[in-house]
């Protein structure tokens, strides 16, 4: 499964780059990620039942990540119906819509990869929020569910 391999690589990179920061506390980062979940659920695009938003993992549980630090994770999927159009056009529209949602609705800064190649295998979107440190990876898939989101806070202390 090419998707699983690509997603595993993308998530591993996101986890490695999240690092262990000590500036904000886990409480602050967790609260922000929970707000992001609520914003996603109430956004005009995703509250439409046709898009089938599913929150697979809510950011309400501390996950140990070593040395007395913890992080929180949000995992979600949603679908974007493909109309009678070429696959590449569908992926372009789905990617643009998600990038707009991440930037405008959720307040993330997109990490553009100018060397990436657009293919029919899917696309990755990387974005960050620096205060508190949250990273998100979205895989835009050619098959349903179209969007597969994985957001993670940095490894933080609870205090």
Q: Please, could you describe this protein's structure?
A:
It is a single chain. The protein has three helices and eight strands, in the order H-H-E-E-E-E-H-E-E-E-E. It has helices at 2-18, 26-42, 87-105, and strands at 54-57, 63-66, 69-71, 73-78, 109-110, 123-129, 134-140, 147-153. A hairpin with a 2-residue loop joins strand 2 (63-66) and strand 3. 33% of the residues lie in helices and 25% in strands. The strands form two sheets. The protein has a six-stranded antiparallel beta sheet with strand order 1-4-8-7-6-5, with helices on both faces. The chain has a two-stranded antiparallel sheet with strand order 2-3. By secondary structure, it is an alpha+beta fold.
Quickly describe the structure.
By secondary structure, the chain is α+β, with helices and mostly antiparallel strands. It has helices at 2-18, 26-42, 87-105; strands at 54-57, 63-66, 69-71, 73-78, 109-110, 123-129, 134-140, 147-153. A hairpin with a 4-residue loop joins strand 6 (123-129) and strand 7.
């Amino acid at each position: 499964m090419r998707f699983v391999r690509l997603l595993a690589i993308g998530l591993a990179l996101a986890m490695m780059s999240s690092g262990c920061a000590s500036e904000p506390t886990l409480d602050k980062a967790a609260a922000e990620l929970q707000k992001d979940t609520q914003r996603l659920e109430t956004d005009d695009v995703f509250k439409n039942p046709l898009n089938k938003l599913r929150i697979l993992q809510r950011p309400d549980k501390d996950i140990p990540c070593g040395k007395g630090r913890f992080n929180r994770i949000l995992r979600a999927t949603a679908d974007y119906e493909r109309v009678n159009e070429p696959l590449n056009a569908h992926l372009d529209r789905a990617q643009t819509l998600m990038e707009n949602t991440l930037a405008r609705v959720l307040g993330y800064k997109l990490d553009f990869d100018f060397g990436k190649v657009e293919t029919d295998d899917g696309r990755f979107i990387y974005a960050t929020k620096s205060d508190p440190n949250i990273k998100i990876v979205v895989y835009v898939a050619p098959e349903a569910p179209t969007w597969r989101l994985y957001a993670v806070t940095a490894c933080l202390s609870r205090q």
